[in-house]
Write a structure and sequence with these properties.
By secondary structure, this protein is an alpha/beta fold. It folds into two domains: about 240 residues, no CATH class; about 180 residues, Rossmann fold, CATH 3.40.50.11350. Helices cover about 35% and strands about 10% of the residues. The chain contains 16 helices and twelve strands. The strands form three sheets. A six-stranded mixed beta sheet has the order 7-6-5-8-9-10, sandwiched between helices. β8, α15 and β9 form a beta-alpha-beta unit. The longest helix has 18 residues. It is globular and about 80 Å long. It starts with a helix and ends with a strand. The mean pLDDT is about 90. Bound molecules: guanosine-5'-diphosphate. Guanosine-5'-diphosphate binds next to α5, β6, α14 and α15.
Length: about 475
């Protein structure tokens, strides 16, 4: 019956086509169950293989998670022998935070994929500024690194991956592999030969029991480049441009507090719109970039590409017709001037199409703040609201925008990233996939030779539209 179909549809949408495990309680994470009411079902279906990997991962996380005997036993062992190779049954990957929320979320997704392909348990170090943003992603366990984690705040005293590579003579000697290691995958301009995408490095890393990762990057393309991971990843992701879309929707469910902010804002300003347009304006060097230039860029992009209508200079009054459409622009920016200007513009004159254009901006924080939970809560709210758009315009190079596009399954229009008083034509360009860009891909192959641009060497990888030395999956 149609009722049964409807019920099945809702059931499958609720659990995101099998991505999300059954058995979660609703009260502790309402968004996990209700988000389907707010978005169209994703046209991208996860593979059965990915789903089975996730279910197996959840079992592993339960078996080795922080409240288990296995975890306690492993930590005792590692404290005793952190510099020596100590085989342990449970292996861990600890994610540590650097930079803004967008950077953190893309690197957490990459870390999770790395944990999936290396059978490690992912634990995340959330300081007070990230508490209560997300629900627990894994059933009947936690991913939060416990307060009494024995290596907390001692990362400077831990053997590094770079140091291991220095000692490595290529003979796979176990003596060089410690059981606890710090792995820095952060953005650096002097790119040492990281060789992270090579089987040999991964064979060494696989022997490390506890890896502490420091990264602000979406290093997923590196994993696809690693020969020993590639077949598995190809089975998990039949379409390569859906990696963040699936993993992001699996991992990042807004906490009840965040969901309250998101759902109230949506119901108040967005639910009744015929079309929703997300506009993300990130100004990287505000002191050097006049608002006027940014505003021109934004209008040039949205008007030329007909994302927003031109103003009708001939008439003063919009004639009332029955099927008048309302487009609502959700504007995310640290500065209120963009939302104010756009709203005033569309209230001052009618549009040539007769459409009504509403403009709402949830916050204007003025500058990026660190160690501030409420600030991050707003950032997460806005990222999520942007992801609920029908059309998305983001700023080049901004990981804040990457998360929104990935969660929403949207290929955004990328605004050119202006710095200073310049203009740019075209003002924006359509992205080639919804995946985040990996800004610092490997430059050397496993023999240590400089590589040509990777977009030419690997299938399903291309130069990023917004950053030509970066790479992304398509
Ligand atoms: P990126 O620097 O653009 O790649 O993005 P990140 O998210 O890593 O860092 C920027 C940080 O600045 C965000 O996490 C927020 O804390 C803040 N921020 C930047 N733009 C906005 C915005 O439009 N809205 C809000 N609420 N915060 C923003």
């Amino acid at each position: 019956t149609s009722y049964a179909n409807e019920h099945n549809r809702i059931h499958s949408d609720k659990l995101l086509d099998g991505l999300v495990a059954s058995g979660f309680e609703k009260v502790s994470c309402i968004s996990r169950f209700d988000s389907y009411l707010y978005r169209k079902a994703s046209p991208h279906k996860p593979s059965q293989y990915l789903i089975s990997k996730l279910r197996n991962y959840e079992d592993l996380h339960r078996k080795c998670g922080v409240h288990t005997k296995a975890y306690k036993r492993t930590m005792v062992k590692l404290v005793r022998s952190k510099n020596h190779n100590a085989g342990t049954v449970c292996k861990y990957l600890v994610w540590t935070p650097v930079n803004g929320l967008g950077n953190r979320m893309i690197s957490m997704a990459a870390a999770f994929l790395y944990a999936l392909v290396t059978d490690r348990v992912l634990l995340v170090e959330f300081q007070s500024d990230m508490v209560d943003l997300f629900c627990e992603p894994f059933p009947n366990s936690t991913w939060i690194l416990p307060k009494d984690f024995p290596f907390r705040n001692k990362y400077a005293h831990i053997e590094t991956y770079q140091n291991m590579l220095k000692k490595d003579k290529g003979n796979g000697s176990k003596e060089i592999v410690p059981s606890v290691m710090h792995l820095n995958m952060q953005h650096t301009f002097n790119d040492p030969k990281k060789l992270f995408h090579c089987n040999h490095s991964q064979d060494l890393l696989q022997q490390v029991s506890l890896l502490i990762l420091q990264s602000d990057q979406y290093f997923v393309p590196s994993l696809f480049m690693t020969p020993s991971f590639n077949p598995e990843l190809n089975k998990m992701f039949l379409k390569k441009d859906t990696v963040f879309h699936h993993l992001g929707r699996y991992l990042f469910h807004p906490s009840n507090e965040a969901w309250g902010l998101i759902s109230r804002f949506y119901q108040t300003y967005l639910a009744n719109a015929d079309e929703r347009i997300g506009l993300q304006i990130r100004v990287f060097r505000p002191d050097h970039t006049p608002h006027q230039r940014v505003m021109e860029l934004l209008l040039s992009c949205t008007l030329k590409n007909k994302l927003l209508p031109e103003l009708d200079k001939q008439n003063f009054i919009t004639s009332i017709s029955k099927n008048q459409t309302l487009k609502v622009v959700l504007l995310a920016s640290l500065y209120r001037v963009y939302g104010d200007n756009l709203r005033t513009m569309y209230l001052s004159e009618p549009t040539v199409t007769g459409e009504m254009i509403g403009v709402c901006q949830p916050s204007h924080e003025e500058h990026q703040k660190f160690h501030d939970n409420r600030h991050n809560m707003m950032a997460w709210t806005e990222i999520y609201l942007l992801s609920m758009s029908d059309t998305l315009v983001t700023t080049s190079l901004s990981t804040f925008g990457y998360v929104a596009q990935g969660l929403g399954g949207l290929k955004p229009w990328l605004l050119y990233r202006i710095v200073g008083n310049e203009t740019h034509n075209p003002a924006c360009e359509r992205d080639i996939s919804m995946e985040p860009c990996f800004h610092i891909p490997p430059k050397y192959n496993c023999e240590g030779k400089a590589m040509e641009h990777l977009g030419l060497l690997y299938p399903h990888m291309r130069k990023c539209v917004d950053y030509s030395s970066g790479i992304k999956l398509i």
